[in-house]
Amino acid sequence: MKVLVIEDSATTRRIIKKNLAAFNLTDIEEAENGEEALAKLDGIDIVLTDWNMPVMDGLTMVKTIRANPKYKDLPIMMITSQAAKKEVIEALKNGVNGYIVKPFTAATLAEKVKGLLARCNPVSEAE
Amino acid sequence: MDVKYINPFISSLNNTLETMLSVSPGRNQPFLKSNNKASGDVSGIIGFASQEVVGSVALTFPEKAALKAYELLMGETLPHINEEVQDMVGELANIVAGGAKEEFNAIGIVYHISIPTVVTGKGHSIGHKGGVPVVVIPFELNGLPFYMEVSMKVKPGLPTVQKLVAENVAG
Ligand SMILES: [Mg+2]
User: What is the ipTM of this complex?
Assistant: First the structure.
């Protein structure tokens, strides 16, 4: 399971990586903005992205990813300070599959990421 | 500037520090800022704007408070402010500004926020965007002072809280 973490804050990238490692997600690719991320999508199983970033913001990046049929089912979680309900709705309308509002706890991140992975790969437990 | 424009930032800061650092900051009496000098050694500034408002919110930390915040967040004790501490202060300002949106939406104010600007050094200045007096709210993190500054110009014609409440009651 390979995760792409896109976040301009180095501090938040470290926190996210540490929280993911706690449930054994340790294969992490990182990018500091949307443009850098677009070049790193091959082989990625799940994307965790910030919204407010320089160069290319997260929402613009999500729209670009979804415009490519190859990535129509790629799970994307947005992790952002954008706390307004209308922003959550805008992100979901544009192809984001899950949304975490900063500030978040390790427990919230784990629950939401595991939930998204389970929704996108509804196999393992049944078989 | 009306306190109703300060309170959403205060709630957001409290929530941010309680969630990320597991501390409830102490708060002291706000005052109007008389110059553009920061009270801290590292500041994170976020500009915001919309049809209704223009302004900025800044968090400014003296070194001790910045290092304590970093220790609480990352579990590491640093001797001085470095790039990671600067990044943390910018991200905290970003989270405070974004987190206040929902409360502002409830009083009819919507805005977009900028990418954080971080400034460091003794006696650095903070460029606020509102063009109106800056309100400084002093806080304490485990007894160490730090400050939130808010400058917010509300454009004419915006419904006041009183009007919104009256309309809701009437409707
Ligand atoms: Mg960011």
Answer: 0.93
